[in-house]
Amino acid sequence: MSSEIPIPVLQDYGLTGKTGFLPGEFPVTELSDPYYGKWESVVRILPSLLLSKRIRMVVDKLPQLEVKPSLLENTAQLRRAYSVLCFIANAYVWGYDEPLDTLPDCIAQPLLLISERLGLPPLATYASLILWNYQPIIHDSDLVEDIFDLQNLTTINTFTGGIDESWFYLVSVFFEKNGGQCIDAGLQAIQATRERDSKKLRSLLENMAQGIDQLGSLLMKMEEMCDPHVFYYRIRPYLAGWKNMADAGLPNGVKYGPNGSYHHFAGGSNAQSSLIQALDILLGVEHFAMGHKKPQQEAISAKTASNSFINGMREYMPREHRTFLVHLEQVSTIRDYVLSHKSDEKLTLAYDACLGMLKSFRDKHIQIVSRYVILQANKKPLSGSKSKTYRSGLSKGQGKKEQTGTGGTSLIPFLKQCRDETGSVAASDWGKKMLSTGVLQVQSSSSIVGIRKRPTDDEKLGEIGERKRTKVGLAGDWKSADDDDEIVSRSTGHW
Ligand code: HEM
Ligand SMILES: N[C@@H](CC(=O)c1ccccc1NC=O)C(=O)O
């Protein structure tokens, strides 16, 4: 790490402090060149084509269109083309009871070219489904308070045409938008370490802690309009990729064109979001191979020990975002600065509060995954023949692999390790203790409001099952801290 290396400038990577990893302008909703009209008309009616099981028949009739230089030169149009082709590709492969392992050339060839140009894999990714797939409902900023309000956003395309799927994507869009300011504050915080300005650093870390706290609350909005059953049985199957999918019927992956070659690619996942990885880098959180802790000896290289899934997911991010993360890693000095100023209690508290918020975010995420994947996968079939639908059709192949994420992780152990690694880098002894035993949630680093007993994981699952997940702490509940306790904020009060 060297202070010689300039701090990244968001704009150099196509990012903005206002929108983070989302494009600065709203994504293009339709390719402007009528030459690509047939792609657009297929994706427009994708839900109906899937419902009537005609997607393959229709796509097979599409002409082989060339990727014009005018398309390659226009980033917004290129992203739209990528998104359209990814939706069609995943629908083509997963749109029937049995997946098909060969994409026709009319989709495969342009998709290979376009994805290569964007530095992305040729299948539905977080970028195609979330980052470049939203639009405002009301465009006129005179008519709405904030054009970017979650209430004013809708998706451009979905597989199912349903509100649950739109909401599933939109929560992440909103999450990315809100995260932008955390990245901006993080970059300023690095600058503050260079200026050795502890007061400024503390204030920026406090902003970040609040921003990350909001991200956790946003995550819990998922339940407002995305039903777990609909998610698991109707939406999620289309998000799958073609890596480790032998059980689902794709032992070789997918062939790109009848004369092309087979490729294995992981399915869409929020692990492909650059935002959380950027926060980890800024705060010095490291993730290690499953079941491993930070290596003690230098003999084991950091690369060997690091988590290959998380690193691998960078290959599923747009090239510019990937290079931004690499640059960020080279200048990330916040943790070292805080550790070398351990006597500054307010500073260490502000830093530990950021970690606490991030850890709390990951805790909430585990609850979401439990409800949306684990509980659904373990659902007992209803009595009667209709119950078979729980294990047939689109959810086929997931019966045996229900503990696996679309990205291919053994999900709960993986997510728990990510969560625990977040807490383990706390700077203060107090923070270390709290973050290794409980969930720390603070309104801002200067206003920790209380502590209460931490529920066990089993208790949490029970609550989730009964739809009683959120408990708001009452002043009367507070007591002094011991090892099993968590600190909660008045603002969110989530477990
Ligand atoms: C129903 C909603 C969701 C489900 C079922 C879900 C499921 C998962 C699963 C299974 C993984 C493990 C990686 C994989 O195999 O794909 C994962 C990772 C991840 N998810 Fe989610 N997720 C959901 C929503 C979200 C949302 C809305 C966010 C952020 C706003 C998010 C953020 C993350 C992150 C950052 C990771 C990487 C692991 C980490 O850094 O802790 N997820 N998710
Ligand atoms: N990994 C998740 C899927 C997921 O999180 C996801 C997949 C595609 C696009 C966005 C995603 N996350 C959104 O909130 C799963 O295993 O179901």
UniProtKB/TrEMBL annotation:
Reactions catalysed according to its record: L-tryptophan + O2 = N-formyl-L-kynurenine
Record's function text: Produces N-formyl-kynurenine through the oxidation of tryptophan.
Region (Disordered) residue spans: 383-408
GO biological process, one term: L-tryptophan catabolic process to kynurenine
UniProt record similarity statement: Belongs to the indoleamine 2,3-dioxygenase family.
Stored SUPFAM superfamilies: Indolic compounds 2,3-dioxygenase-like
One Pfam family here: IDO
InterPro entries attached to this UniProt entry: Indolamine_dOase (IPR000898), Trp/Indoleamine_2_3_dOase-like (IPR037217)
Protein name: Indoleamine 2,3-dioxygenase
GO CC terms: cytoplasm
Record carries keyword Ribosomal protein: no
Keywords on record: Dioxygenase, Heme, Iron, Metal-binding, Oxidoreductase
EC number: 1.13.11.52
Binding-site residues for heme b, renumbered to this chain: H365
Molecular function GO terms recorded: heme binding; indoleamine 2,3-dioxygenase activity; metal ion binding
